[in-house]
TrEMBL record:
Class of the enzyme per the UniProt entry, highest EC level: isomerase
Every Myo-inositol-1-phosphate synthase GAPDH-like domain range: 221-325
PANTHER family for the chain: MYO-INOSITOL-1 PHOSPHATE SYNTHASE
GO terms under biological process: inositol biosynthetic process; phospholipid biosynthetic process
Source organism of this protein record: Agromyces flavus
Name this protein carries in UniProt: Myo-inositol-1-phosphate synthase
């Protein structure tokens, strides 16, 4: 095994976020892109032993068979990525594409068998490239929340149900998460609002897996801004009465979130931080609209109404416009680097400090961005020391 090489296994490997991250990793490795937007490239992380960009090997699962380089060219046509960059790293995209597998499905088989097949793909990838570890990151499309079932609250009943042929009990995100943490022993992050490991009967399984995990739902734009601004109102004693938001987006995310069932989990995760920071009496209407002609550009509008001294009215309006995938991709790369560090240091279970990257952080109730940033850097420095100690031992 080569300690210097780490696999990144994307669930949703041909989607916009994974494609952008793969192009980004390739461009960084080739020296034709700057690490703009990568937290771990900042001076605060000087001295923290993180994998170099050329140390990663990319693979993954997807349901789409469109070649990765073609997906990247489509993103370039839409203006997200420079076409010259895509062509300069096309050979690396082809190499990554060769490591993408269709999501295994068994006709009338058990979901336990499906978990095993997905884990086999991850283990095979690791062995084929002589990797020390593989970090699995779910960046697939948002799933509808599954209807609650009694098995979700009883571990033994859930295990028994998973073994039955023809029973589709768990959503795909949960199958992929279990394949990673229990089947392949791989560090895992859920960058989507899909339920993943959020089923009560699986909490202990995730904690006992012996690998670091992080989630959930990447904090990239509007929610990032909210978790910066909301503590300001609280600190200055200005009472927020309402915080309304509207999101306009097209592309694959827009089409996915046009489904009322799929958007439910997204809306919940986007508002949870506001309520934790400002209180549950704040009115927080929020809606997401699919506007196909916008493509991959996302625009978010917020209107904040607060109460000031002597019953005065305070209004703040914000507009945030960006390619959401180019906001997400560097964070995904950061997570791959930091989960590698956590794994090298022997950490396991939810890494609370990685909540910095998420709307609904596992293992943490902290949402204020400035505090999260301080906690992340402190954790990285402590973990670097622990990693060195573990390697010496």
């Amino acid at each position: 095994m080569n300690e210097g090489r780490t696999g990144v296994w994307f669930v949703g490997a041909r989607g916009s976020v994974a494609t952008t991250a793969t192009v980004g990793l390739a461009a960084l490795a080739e020296g034709i892109a700057r690490p703009v937007g990568l937290v771990t490239a900042g001076s605060a992380f000087d001295g923290v032993p993180l994998p170099d960009f050329d140390d990663f090997v990319v693979g993954g699962h997807d349901v789409d068979e469109t070649p990765l380089v073609e997906r990247a060219r489509r993103l370039a046509t839409g203006g997200m990525i420079p076409a010259a960059t895509v062509e300069a790293v096309a050979h690396r995209l082809d190499a990554a594409d060769a490591e993408i597998r269709l999501v295994p499905r068994t006709a009338r088989g058990s979901q336990r068998r499906e978990i095993g097949l997905r884990a086999d793909d991850i283990r095979s990838f690791r062995e084929r490239h002589g990797l020390r570890r593989v970090v699995v990151i779910d960046v697939a499309s948002t799933e509808p929340l599954p209807a609650d079932r009694p098995e979700f609250h009883d571990h033994d009943a859930l295990v028994a149900a998973l073994a039955q042929d023809g029973v589709e009990l768990l959503p795909s995100s949960t199958l992929s998460a279990l394949a990673a943490v229990t089947g392949a022993g791989a560090p895992y992050a859920c960058f989507t609002p899909s339920i993943s490991l959020g089923i009560p009967a699986l909490h202990a399984v995730a904690a006992d897996a012996g690998v670091p995990i992080a989630g959930q739902d990447g904090k990239t734009g509007e929610t990032l801004l909210r978790t910066v601004l909301a503590p300001m109102f609280s600190s200055r004693g200005m009472r927020v009465l309402s915080w309304a938001g509207a999101n306009l987006l097209g592309g694959g995310d827009g089409a996915t979130l046009a489904d009322p069932a799929a958007v439910e989990s997204k809306l919940a995760s986007k508002n949870r931080g506001l309520h934790d920071l400002l209180g549950h009496d704040v009115v927080t209407p929020l809606h997401i609209d699919n506007v196909p002609d916008l493509g991959d550009v996302k625009t978010a509008w917020d209107h904040v109404h607060a109460e000031g001294f002597l019953d005065t009215r305070i209004t703040l309006q914000t507009t945030w416009t960006a390619y959401d995938s180019t906001l997400a991709a560097p964070l995904v790369i950061d997570l791959a680097r930091l989960l590698t560090l956590a794994d090298q240091a022997g950490l396991s279970g939810p890494i609370a400090e990685l909540g910095y990257f998420f709307k609904d952080p596992w293992g943490s109730e902290e949402h204020a961005f400035a505090r999260q940033a301080d906690e992340l850097v402190s954790w990285a420095l402590r973990t670097a020391v622990r990693r060195t100690t573990a390697q010496v031992a």
